[in-house]
Amino acid sequence: MFVQVIQGPVSDPEGMRAALDRWAADLAPGAQGWLGTAAGVTDDGVAIAVTQFESEEAARRNNDRPEQDRWWAETARLFSGEVTFRDSASAVVDMVGDADEAGFVQVIEGQGTDPDRSRQLMAQETGEWAEYRPDILGTVGAQHDDGAFTMAVFFTSEEDAREAERQELPPRLKAQMDEMNALSVGAPQYFDLRQPWLYSPR
């Protein structure tokens, strides 16, 4: 699994959505190995797109297409500041529901001291987490260089997510979360996509 995260400030969210809609309609059919994109703009104007490909080679083939170059040349003009690109060939996808049905997506960015241990923890107790948090339809986690990570969490709705956050964690899940927090360097950043744009090959 290969994940690319594109992020930058925009002043025209609707223009950005229209650009992604065009990509999904015109370019996605020829993007072999593309598995889906979750995107949106935060309340303070940060656009984020988390795109999944079956492999790094598939992503490179897509980027090398002339029509992709033309689309990006036009879309890049919609950003009002620096655009960052972060790739990950070390991604973990955990879906217990249909991510395309998500009403709220939260993107978390941070840095950890032990990426291998973090992956082990994220793979543990998935059934118990699903029972405890039915509002979570799934996650896409990507490890970057120097321990940096991006995680996209797909929720049924923001209301469901906020209500579930107030629950007390069961002991085993609390121990897991405490260890995850202990591996973090500084405080993570949270980007709320309250009106997510979800695209998939289906």
Explain what this protein looks like in three dimensions:
With 202 residues, the protein is an alpha+beta fold. It has 2 domains: 2-88, Alpha-Beta Plaits, CATH 3.30.70; 90-193, Alpha-Beta Plaits (2-Layer Sandwich), CATH 3.30.70. It is built from 7 helices and 10 strands. The chain has helices at 13-27, 56-63, 66-75, 115-123, 126-132, 158-165, 171-182, and strands at residues 2-9, 34-41, 46-53, 84-88, 90-95, 104-111, 136-143, 148-155, 189-193, 197-199. The chain has a 5-stranded antiparallel beta sheet. The longest helix has 15 residues, at 13-27. The two termini are 18 Å apart. The mean pLDDT is 91. It comes from Phytohabitans kaempferiae. This is ABM domain-containing protein.
Write out key terms for the chains shown:
Alpha-Beta Plaits, 10 strands, alpha+beta, 202 residues, 2 domains, globular, 7 helices
